[in-house]
Each structure stands twice: as C-alpha cells, then as structure tokens.
Amino acid sequence: MSSTPISDLIINKLSYNQYKEVVSGNTYNNDQVYQIKDISHTFNTHAGILSNCILKIPQNLKLTLENNVLTLKAGSILTNDGSSYSTKTINNDITTDFSSYSANNGNSMVFSQGGYFRTFSLSKVVSGTIDSLADVAWHVWFDTTNKEINTYGNAGTAAIRFCYPICVVSYGSDNQWHIAKDSNDHDMIFNGAGFIGHHAFVLPGVKGLISNGFDENKNLKSIYRINNALRISELLQQYNTIYLTNWSGYISVHYYAGEVNNYSDLSDSYYRYVRNENNIARIYSGAVSSFNPIVPLVHYNYDGTTVTDFTIRQPFRADESKKFTYRQW
Known about the structure:
The chain is built from one helix and 32 strands. The protein is mainly beta and about 325 residues long. It has two domains: about 5-55 and about 205-325, no CATH class; about 65-190, no CATH class.
C-alpha cells in the first residue's frame, strides 16, 4: 500500500491527469460509489463526479508514539471542553515518556493536561447525565449536559478538567506502548471525531458528499455538506455507524449493513446503500423507506460497557499502489 500521506491524496490534491485517465463509469468498492470521468472544469465541482464519500477530515492532531515516547507536535489543535466550541493551538512539542506507566488491562484513553499527558483505562472513562462511577477513584466523567470532562481523584472529588481526548493507546506484547489500532488497522487518533465513554464527538470541518440519486444523464448526484459545529451523539449498542446528515451538518447514529443493487434487494430494517438508486434506504412498515441523504462517517462497536472499535472513515483518496482504485475505510 502506498505510504503517501492521506492529506496529499484527497480529492482536491489529485492531479488532472489522474482524473482524465480514469475510465468513465461507476466503480463500486467497499460500501461506497464513485463515478469518475474526464473533467476539464474546476475540481471544486463535485456533483456528478463523486457520491457517498467523505471529502475531508481535519488533521488537527499531529501525534507520534515511538519507543514509549508520546509526542504531540507543535501546531496541533486541541478542543477545549465546555458547552461552547473553542480550541487552543500547541506552540511547542509536548512529550511524555510512557516507560514508567504500568501496563493495564485493555486500552487506555489519553488526555492532554498542560505540558503533559494523562491516561485512563477505558473502563474508567464514562459519559452521561450522571456520573456512573461516582464511588470509584481516579476515573473520568464526561458530563454530557455541560459538555465538561472531569477527572476525579478521591471518589466524588473533582480534581482536574481536561480537553477532549486525543487518542487511545495500548500496551503490547513487546512491552512497549503503541497507539491502538481500529478494525481497519488505522491509528486510533481522534482527528475529526472521537469518543468519550459511550458518547461520540464530531468536530467542525468534516466534509462529505451525500448520495442523492441520479440526474437525467444518469450521472451520480450529490449534496455537499460540512459539519460546522461540535456535535455530540450517544453510541447505542444496537447501532454501528455515525452518519453525517444533510440537516445543517448534524450527525446521527444507526445500523449500517452494507450494499445492495436495487430496492427489491432490501429485506429488513437495516439501512443499506442502494447502488442503482444512489441512495441509502431500508424496509420500514413493509415499504421502502429512504433515509436520504446521509454519508457514513464512523464505524463503531459498543458492547454496552466500552467502545471496542471506532474506525473513522478516511477521506476520498487514491491508492497509488493500485492505479486508479479508490478506497475509504
């Protein structure tokens, strides 16, 4: 697979020749659809070219974890907690040596506090309108009413306020700390979206094209949408996907079950991408119900206690190791 950074491969960075040489037509690949063709007009005109894909996820966190040393690079942007969205930019590298951190069971969530980091086992990071671990020392509670993140020392005593978490780390069999991987082997760094307890947050700046049928020439139609505010959503156990919706950039959660060719192939209440309709739909009350328009943003798994997978969909990009193939997850 190409080692070219994603930021160099998102759609606005692809060369004109890459566009021009792609064979015109529909390419169905991994729960997404594109129609690539020779375009001599501006690259900013996406309608009819792409559909059902994420175009941009802000890369605000520049993070490395090597030889047990975690480094948040200068220029990284942290999201402050609280009911109003605000950020702060890191002017100097923040580095912490994890060598002295004891291994714990399962993965840990990392928070930035001033010039260093704090980690908490995922089993001690909770969220909701009440603190469900109020009698447990050294835990983190995300207050979903006030959007505040507090860590508690002695049980029930507020100790420290944190920014939104930056990543999940794990202790490996090699006795080294690593940034945890999601189900698609991506580093679990919270660029664009992340989770605290069983609540997800989606940051401003996430952009996508939402499937919207076909035009009279059978070209794919799309609706361009950008998330313009900090969004919070509860991750429910019976669902598995966070969607960017067409309603003022809001997000929603539901179960997503992949692709089918036609409406007639739908057989249950799970949402699926319908290729020949360029739409997302399901069977509801015995009839086809379109949930148009939405685009999947995050695949997650919540087992009722902790989030065990949180795969942020990658921006539209070319995998240069296989000429003119396209991938997202």
